[in-house]
Amino acid sequence: QLALELLKAASAKAAAFEVTAMAVTKNFRGSPHIDQNDFSVQYALAVGDFASGGELCVEENPFLVRGLNTHNRLVCIDGRYPHWVSGYTGERYSIIFYRTSGDWDPPQQAVHPV
Hints:
The chain is mostly beta strands and 114 residues long. It is 12% helix and 36% strand. It has helices at residues 2-10, 12-16; strands spanning 21-26, 42-47, 50-51, 56-61, 64-68, 75-77, 83-85, 89-90, 93-98, 111-112. The strands form three sheets. It has a five-stranded antiparallel sheet, with helices on one face. Strands 5-4-7 form a three-stranded antiparallel sheet, with no helix packed on it. It is globular and about 35 Å long. The mean pLDDT is 96.
């Protein structure tokens, strides 16, 4: 409940986002993937004592990958675009808010304002 309250306090756009699922991971290191069950964008935040990386990398198009700093920062991406977490050292927790039911928003861009 606290995590959802923090999301809702981030911005008017985040407050209006209908969350149906939340993932909390510890030290996740995944290869590039697409979240095929997502119906819309997702909000992501990372916390912990980590350094030297840990960015959320998103493939905006075949020629451009954007690395987003999520360390103590909320970002908004469309997980239906290829994305992954860059290598890092230390302990990293991530919280992802997303939607897997309800209104389906067509993918339009990989990175969105919060």
